[in-house]
TrEMBL record:
InterPro entries xref list: Acetyltransf_17, Acetyltransferase_Eis, Acyl_CoA_acyltransferase, Eis_dom, GNAT_dom, SCP2_sterol-bd_dom_sf
Domain N-acetyltransferase: 5-151
Superkingdom: Bacteria
Region forming the signal peptide: none
Gene3D superfamilies cross-referenced by the UniProt entry: 3.40.630.30, SCP2 sterol-binding domain
Pfam families documented for this protein: Acetyltransf_17 (PF17668), Acetyltransf_9 (PF13527), SCP2_2 (PF13530)
The name this protein goes by in its record: GNAT family N-acetyltransferase
Organism for this UniProt entry: Nostoc paludosum FACHB-159
Length: 392
């Protein structure tokens, strides 16, 4: 029997309460108060799915931006996808995601990203691994950086507007970084239970060269500092960052921070004492092929074209042949061409983000292309490894 699903926005108080109950069961209170979380995101940004007029699940949409090749593209993050246990396996989650993607396409949003609980569901609707989210750690007594070349300015009370411009400067230069949703900023500066958050500008007040926001936490493995956010624009700022953390070595055992799989901060340490403690890959969905390819930035020194043939089982307009012409760091997309690089819209995601090279995607069976097309794609999508500092 094929079930009939109804997709809509969240508006009515009984629906809000029912969705909060589903969230609570699905996420085991991980949201820290379901209705408070919903108010923080904005009730109007939730989408729900019904079967036979019964609300069976929902999700949150976070409208923000993401930086690719030095250009900001509109991106909608998908969070807290939840289906009531008795309706799991009914097709409700896929229907919810399909409707959401079609809505995003109609609104002109080129990209969507999410952190999957399981990849299988999201791959069915065109998401694929897009970049990394890593947590590193090092023992404070192994940092070994003593000199502090720049002054530190405590920020009290903590207001994210103080850090916003510095963050945006780093985000523009970091492949995959978010133009953050306000709720993400709030989670960075507001303390959890049993923790205190501290923030410092690095450098002078009129010309800061970075910042650090961190919390001190007591765990069963001892005391740690968790760096919730950081921006470092200069070598002096990086050294000051490490020297500040090293001063805590008599009370704090470990420092943890978020960074990329290849972390340049560790180059400033005297030894290879930092290790990855947590690794995860978020997923990206190319919602609008033409907009996604034409709006991002590309390497400035190349002039070439790539003939694509794309399949998309959700958004019909993404199907077919496209020519991506790249020159002077910009891309232009026209329909037609030879279709020399053939792939599903799902596999376009890790190519687009530069997570994997065209060669490696081909030997993994994720795309098929002529030697000319593989060469052109390699030039076009050459970039640093993509990563995001924020979990949502």
């Amino acid at each position: 029997m094929t079930l009939e699903f109804e997709y809509s926005t969240l508006a009515h108080p009984p629906d809000i309460q029912q969705l909060a109950v589903i969230f609570k069961q699905c996420f085991v209170n991980a949201l820290g108060g379901e209705e408070a979380y919903m108010n923080q995101i904005g009730v109007e940004n939730f989408r729900i799915i019904r079967e036979s007029q019964q609300l069976i699940g929902g999700l949150a949409t976070l409208n923000m931006g993401q930086w690719w090749g030095g250009e900001r593209l509109p991106m909608t993050g998908i969070a807290v996808v939840a289906i009531a246990p008795e309706y799991r396996g009914s097709g409700g989650a896929i229907a919810l995601m399909q409707h959401t993607l079609k809505e995003l396409y109609a609104r002109g949003v080129p990209l969507s990203a999410l952190y999957p609980a399981v990849q299988t569901l999201y791959r069915k609707v065109g998401y694929e691994q897009g970049g990394s989210w890593y947590i590193w750690e090092v023992a404070t007594n192994a940092i070994g950086v003593r000199e502090q070349p720049l002054p530190l300015q405590p920020v009290v009370p903590i207001n994210h507007q103080v850090f916003h411009e510095l963050y945006q400067q780093q985000a523009k230069l970091t492949h995959g970084y978010l133009d953050r949703h306000p709720a993400i900023w709030r989670r960075l500066i507001e303390p959890d239970e049993n923790e205190q958050v501290y923030a410092y500008l690095i450098g002078t007040k009129d010309k800061p060269e970075g910042y650090i926001i961190f919390a001190q936490q007591r765990t069963h493995n001892g005391e740690i500092i968790f760096v919730k956010d950081w921006v470092l624009k200069t070598a002096a700022a990086t050294q000051t960052f490490w020297s500040l953390l090293a001063t805590h070595r008599s009370q704090i055992q470990q420092v943890r921070w978020k960074s990329s799989a290849i972390d340049t901060l560790t180059l400033a340490l005297p030894e290879q004492t930092a290790k990855i403690s947590t690794q995860f890959r978020w997923m990206l969905r190319i919602v609008d092929v033409v907009k996604a390819l034409s709006m991002r930035g590309y390497p400035s020194g190349i002039e070439t074209e790539l003939h694509l043939e794309i399949q998309d089982n959700v958004i019909d307009a993404n199907n077919g042949k496209f020519i991506l012409s790249v020159a002077n760091g910009r891309g232009e997309v026209t329909k037609g061409g030879k279709g020399e690089l053939q792939l599903d819209v799902r596999e376009l995601a890790p190519l687009y983000t530069s997570l994997f090279s065209p060669y490696h995607l081909q030997i993994a069976g994720k795309l098929h292309g002529t030697e000319t097309a593989i060469s052109a794609a390699t030039q076009i999508f050459a970039a640093s490894s993509p990563w995001v500092a924020d979990f949502f």
